[in-house]
Amino acid sequence: MVKYEAIANEMRQRILTGTYPIESLIPDQISLAKEFRVSRMTMKKALDILAMEGLIYRQRGSGTFVMKTALLNQQDSAVNEYEGLTKQLSGKKVTSKVIEFNVEFPSEEIMKHLMIKKKQPVYKLVRLRVVDGNPYVLEHTYMPVDLAVGLTEEILEQSIYRYIHEELDLHFGGAFRKIHADKSSHYDQEYLNCKIDDPILEVEQVVYLKDGRPFEYSRSRHRYDTRSYTISDINRNN
Amino acid sequence: MVKYEAIANEMRQRILTGTYPIESLIPDQISLAKEFRVSRMTMKKALDILAMEGLIYRQRGSGTFVMKTALLNQQDSAVNEYEGLTKQLSGKKVTSKVIEFNVEFPSEEIMKHLMIKKKQPVYKLVRLRVVDGNPYVLEHTYMPVDLAVGLTEEILEQSIYRYIHEELDLHFGGAFRKIHADKSSHYDQEYLNCKIDDPILEVEQVVYLKDGRPFEYSRSRHRYDTRSYTISDINRNN
DNA sequence: GAGTGGTCTAGACCACAGT
DNA sequence: CTGTGGTCTAGACCACTCA
């Protein structure tokens, strides 16, 4: 653990436990640097983390304050969507029903999203994710075979992401998503058990590896009444 | 303009114009620091920006590479949603029809979202935003009167955000959003001119000022066929 | 003018990858 | 072992706020 992370953790605790109350001025960087016995640059780097998290804000000339919203939003399940459902809903019982598992050559659209050639095979899979017995999301997924090599039905029924991380030792760098509303298709109605006029929340995403190679293109179709997508966007610049 | 931003701009140009091609190794930090006549820490800070933008990735021990995806995603209209429609769609003709403009005491829910007291009045307004003559989004907005003081119908018909920034000199720190799909109400059908079984994409958001005070709570209801919500999430950690 | 946070430096040490 | 990027330091200067 590097110093600035350790300090950020300590400072976060002080905010969450009220040692530094909401809207209060906290000590200046020089005092804090002295207290933690680090240089001021390192202290600032620790505070940068808390600012990114929306816990503090800084006003040049005035000082550093605890944000009014500091005690909210202590959940970040939004951004790490591609970590997989299994990890996100770790309290609940998540199972997967594999509806389709094939290999094929990519369509024009898939080629574009995964940045691959015409004759580079992809896995195509459709999975229904079931949470505590209720149908939750219907996922249509495409992955290049050479990146996700060695998939089996057994893996699909559990967590693909665990396999990717632990067995293949591949790590994600980010994702690009689009969110739409859509009418439900017969397919949705059948598997998600929704009514004919129920809308669908579709999340279309491309997940990238750390080096920027596209790893997965998927469309996740959610029942409109069980899922909302959450985004927090705090202190992005300065 | 600070040094690291200027250097980041120059490096970004080199990537976008192909001076540093896709997937290539770029010079090491020490060489670059020499070239730009800055310290290595400053050079690293410039590269940090490009990494956040998803243009490069760095491998300790190996070097810094241009991401395969560097030439994509050169649009970021997603994250700055609260900058307002007028700014986002600056090529098109955006008008607003004010459907409701009132002042009232907040409901329980509004009190919670805006973190205000029971007797603190709020503006309630409903606007239909029209882009190039087509109904685009129906916005239900609540703002504390003491923060958005002095709103007039005239301002509402143009850009609220311009008024807030330029006249009131208030600046945003971030936003917190939830995205749902929903069935259309009679209200939606009337103003958005959509069919009875058309779904709606609703974006519910709280916008915060830099000091964390909630400034606006709104629900924006979009036609499902004209709007998708885009999120890019690259290199968030490391 | 005193105190704050933001930037920048020159140099050091460390962790890691490739040889 | 060499070269890479990540961290950390001690000190300097600057921009800004507030009394």
Automatic annotation (TrEMBL), chains A, B:
The keyword Chloroplast does not apply. It comes from Carnobacterium iners. The keyword Phosphoprotein does not apply. CDD domains: WHTH_GntR. Gene3D superfamilies: Chorismate lyase-like, Winged helix-like DNA-binding domain superfamily/Winged helix DNA-binding domain. GO terms for biological process: negative regulation of DNA-templated transcription. SMART domains: HTH_GNTR, UTRA. Keywords: DNA-binding, Repressor, Transcription, Transcription regulation. InterPro entries: Bact_HTH_transcr_reg, Chorismate_lyase_/UTRA_dom_sf, Tscrpt_reg_HTH_GntR, UTRA, WH-like_DNA-bd_sf, WH_DNA-bd_sf. This is Transcriptional regulator, GntR family. Residues 1-69 form the HTH gntR-type domain. It comes from the Bacteria. PROSITE patterns: HTH_GNTR. GO terms for molecular function: DNA binding; DNA-binding transcription factor activity. SUPFAM superfamilies: Chorismate lyase-like, Winged helix' DNA-binding domain.
